[in-house]
Amino acid sequence: MVARKTGKNPNVLPKDDSAYSLIGKYFILNLLLLFLYTILFLLFPEIISETFKINILDYFPFKLIGILLMFISWIWVLTAQHHMKNSWRIGIDKNSPTELVTSGLFKYSRNPVFLGMMISLTGLLFLLPNFISLVFLLVGTLLMQIQIRLEEEFLIKQHGDVYSDYKNRVRRFI
What we know:
With 174 residues, the chain is an all-alpha fold. It is built from seven helices and no strands.
């Protein structure tokens, strides 16, 4: 939708040899592996759910909480992306300055999309309590933390005091 409205591809991850590009590549790899993991679970649910199980989380109430977290996070992420309107990007767009979004969910969190993604990965861990899901949560959270800090550095340069004031008023997550 953003591409249609703006005429530009919202995926602006660099394709060079920088550390930022490497983080983007790991992020995409993590998402592809997560997609593969989901497909494998659909094809072989018993094998996937039993492999490297974390027994302390393997109770029906946790599975329900996991489903609920994943559903809520899906709605949350879609809402946050909607609030971003034409400012939504995958990566840092240094060539097309965007408006700083501080309304909607961004009144409560500077990073509601990443917050929703972390909640979703937590839900996955509750739904499929094994070390594979735990690794996705840990690696995903680490990559998001790095990406957030890169974006914050860029936003300070792009928006100056306006972003600094926003950063002082609104927490990184909640």
